[in-house]
Amino acid sequence: MSHVPTKFVAPDLLEAASSWSPAYFTGAAAVALRASLTGQVISDLGGCVLEGWRASETPGALAYDPRAVTTPVYRQTNIGRLRLHLGAQHWEAPQITGRWCIQPDDIVLNKVAPIRAAFVSPNAKRHPVDGNSLIVRGLSRTQAAWVALCLNQPGYEQLLLIEAGVLQRVGLRALASLRVPPVPPQMDGLSARLSDALDAQMLVSEALHRTRAEANEATSAAPTQAHDLGMGVFFTPDLVTIDSWLPFATALRSEQAALDEQLGWMAIGELSSSSDRTRLPCAPDGAQVLRLRDVGDDLFVASGDAGDEPLLSRTLGKPLVPGEVLLSTLGSSFRAAYVDDDAPKNTFPVDGWVRLRFRETPAAWALLLSTDALRSQAARLTVGSVQQFVPPDALRSLRVPVPTREVRERWQRAVERHHSQRRSLDREWSVLMRELSAAIDVVHQPFATARSRANEVVQ
């Protein structure tokens, strides 16, 4: 009796695969291959595959282009599942034109695994994508949404990478030859909703970006004293304290003293009170943890699914309280969060957060704490062998300007409006993702020998 497992592969499936590699005929890849037997490649749908902009910022390099220094570019980190994640530079007006610049109904795909495909909506800023990305262009909105949805499935990712070798990169030829199943009828309505949802998210984010730009402008008056610490600098004795004798920390205290005296900036410790840092004694049922990576640049605390049980020794003892401001102790990636009234209940921050309570307009102060000037201050408060984390008490020495009450109240309303709109859009997005997952299930489930993994579409 043979102990070697065998499996019969139908001739049409063998013909559809690029090779006879067993990887094509097992697991999620086999489901995708079977489902797409009657489908079409991108060129049959009227589309084409383009490579991103290969440009170097280094003079003398073969691909040197002086425009690369100042042109905002979508890189692999900006490509999410079905949507683009924009940085501050992407809100600028497009500076160049070319086939590498995104257009409505494009699909933008990163080359290096794990693969993510984003659908481009009309309101997206038409910047170029870099050379580590691919663009699918020329499809209708319905086709593009369906292809992007398929590309975010594990099975299609495996089909793209089976012949990729050790580097696990998607090649232009592999993407151009990939078949996708026929577009189901329900994608007409779903693609329109997807485009509208992405546009709405873009508008809400852009409104907050404009408010953040005002806050950055308010902090741009900080004196930029360039101390050449390598050549030696004299500081007055009162600036050398036992908190840190590091040269850049002493230089920061000098800068903060100038901010106090010349511009009237104030220390965070004078404007707020901090909560105690006792740890969670025991985890309540359904407790969630807010980690540092759970908050982006928009001050927003998103609702999430209950994950792993909190690590009691690293989790603060009280759940999030509406109105409080959270500051990250990770000075190398400093960020702030504002806890609004609809923030998720029963959520406990990890001890990498410092909790502050301001007497009024807390969202406005959180906005100021997220500016470039404050990130610069926090980066110079780091301690330890790797210079990453800031002692919690040291964060209270951060200096911020004190805008008028009228300005702070306007910023407060802007941040609260953003958070409210963002929560509403997130709920709509969750509903839309479930419907898109159902559309994937309907097409692929008949070909699955086991439970389909299609619910992993997008998080």
UniProtKB/TrEMBL annotation:
UniProt-listed SUPFAM superfamilies: DNA methylase specificity domain
InterPro entries per UniProt: Restrct_endonuc_typeI_TRD_sf
Source superkingdom: Bacteria
Molecular function via GO: DNA binding
DNA-binding as UniProt keyword: yes
Keywords, ordered alphabetically: DNA-binding, Restriction system
Biological process annotations from GO: DNA restriction-modification system
Name of this chain's protein: Type I restriction modification DNA specificity domain-containing protein
Organism ancestry: Bacteria, Pseudomonadati, Pseudomonadota, Alphaproteobacteria, Hyphomicrobiales
